[in-house]
Structure formats: structure tokens, C-alpha cells
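Re: that chain you flagged

S.,

Sorry for the slow reply, it's been a week of failed gels. I finally had a moment to sit down with the sequence you sent. For the record, here it is as I used it:
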Amino acid sequence: MINLYRVRGSSMTPNFNDNDLIIITKFFFNLEVGDLVILDIPELGTVLKRISFIEDNSIKVKGDNEDYDSLIYNNSYNKDNVVGKVLFKFS
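Prediction finished late last night. Pasting the C-alpha cells below so you have them in one place:
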């Protein structure tokens, strides 16, 4: 299944900007460090982030904007929280 999402915020600039559209797939077989994913975080909702670390069933994520800091960068998340993997961006 393929879904369309709109980017909100500045945590992923300069690669993804506010209001960019992205296409994600919910069907993926593996995740790798560097992959762009939509992650469902119960306290925040869905967020676009880049995988920075993977171990067993846990991942850590980060944003592309080096000037932006978030508490979620310090947390580990279950791979089951990944909603989808980014396939394409429309600017």
C-alpha cells in the first residue's frame, strides 16, 4: 500500500521542507540506517525522521536539520512503530 503525506516543520530541512509531499510504502522488508521513515510516536503522532541506529527490534531516529534538537532523538522505538518508508518527495 502507498500513502501520501505532507511534511510539517523544519526538523528535516534542508532535504525536506514544510509542505513538501512524500510518498511512502507500508510494504518494506528491511530497514537500514539512513532510511527515511514515518514513525508513529503516541505522544506526538506521525513524524518523518531518518534512522540513525538499529539493534534487534529497536531503532533510533534523527532529523536532517543540525540546528534542530528533539527529545525523541534520545529515545529508542520499536520497529513496529514505523508506519512506512519514504519512496519519493515532491517539492
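What I noticed first: The chain has a mean pLDDT of 94.

Talk soon,
D.
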